Amino acid sequence: MTYALIFTVTLVTALLLTPLVQRLALRWGVVAEPGGRRLHQGAIPKLGGLAIFSAWLVGVALIYWLVPPSEANDAIRLRGVVLGSLVVVAGGILDDWFDLRPWAQFAIQFLGAGIAIGHLIFIEVFTSPVGATAIWTAPPISWVFSVEGELVWIWRPLALLFTVFWVVGMINAINWLDGLDGLAAGVCTIAALLFAWHSARLGQTTVSFFPMALAGALVGFLFFNFAPARIFLGSAGAYFLGYQMATLSILSPAKLSTALLVMAVPILDVAWQTFDRARRGQNPLQGDRGHLHFRLADRGVPTHHIVLGYYLVAIAFGLVAIFAPSGLFKLLSWMALGAAVFGLLIWLARRPTGTTLP
């Protein structure tokens, strides 16, 4: 009952706030114009992240009123999720308004990662997918890992560095995924629902309500963002969703595999684009239409088909993350999906631009 209440409240709040934010963005001129990698028609408001974040905050307030965290560490971590989200959303709004330079955008993202770490949100332990003694206790890497049963503990400095990479990487993965109407918001909705389900199964009651609130806000927003979109996420929305995906997946070690499998296609796409742009002598941070979803769209695949395809992959591999019998099976699934995504990207890259798929 509580899950349904939180989901409904944030959904209705997003439904009410999104048109208001849409009008404000038009009045303030915070819009995305056609051109570059964007092929939409007309000026589209790009402050959708503000509506999602505001609706989510209403849900957070309801959570703290109904079921405040009972454990001290959970309270600290959840406070970090809220404060870090506030910082990245504020920075994203500045980027939406003023088109910040890359160093300023990264500064915002690193600050958000620092807030997470300062509130005990970091990746220090994970379940070994291949057996503890086989890999983690063998030289020369054994000095950075310690093993307790199936759990592998990472040397603290390396854990903090990896956490920064995870948070910043996830923010940019969502930012780059946000290229088609309803794509990033829908994939993150699926991830949030799976996070909530997984947390509830692990007995993390208060923690599980946070992604549920996010899912409700996103569903309300998708009524306006699904093709043809009347409002975009903008940097504020992409930063917020990336930060949520990164931090909520850390709050329980078992959810890292869920995040990796649900977000596998965006993560792999970022890896490919970074490598491919560097290989061609292009700035890896310079946006283009080389992303998988853009390549498919440029070859005649309808937007709805691409978006729904991403949704189905996210759902399928998210369920693998939750129900897979072993960590090794999850790892092999991720590797198989990676091979398929890279193979598709290489095949599309070799086809002349403008050709349609059979």
Quickly list its features.
single chain, 358 residues, mainly alpha, 3-stranded antiparallel sheet, two-stranded antiparallel ribbon, 14 helices, 70% helix, globular
What's this model, at a glance?
The protein has 14 helices and five strands. The chain has 358 residues and is mainly α.
What does this protein look like?
- This protein is mainly α and 358 residues long.
- It is built from 14 helices and five strands.
- The chain has helices at residues 2-28, 48-66, 72-98, 102-118, 132-135, 156-177, 183-201, 205-225, 234-250, 255-262, 264-279, 292-298, 303-323, 327-350; strands spanning 31-32, 44-45, 125-127, 145-148, 151-154.
- The protein has a three-stranded antiparallel β-sheet. A two-stranded antiparallel ribbon has the order 1-2.
- The longest helix is centred in the first third of the chain and has 27 residues, at 2-28.
- The model has no long low-confidence stretch (mean pLDDT 86).
Helix proportion range: 55-70%
Shape descriptor: globular
Distance between the termini: 48 Å
Question: Strand sequence of the main sheet, in spatial order?
Answer: 3-5-4
| Poorly predicted residue ranges | none
Radius of gyration: 20 Å
Order of helices and strands: HEEHHHEHEEHHHHHHHHH
Largest sheet: 3 strands, antiparallel
Overall average pLDDT: 86
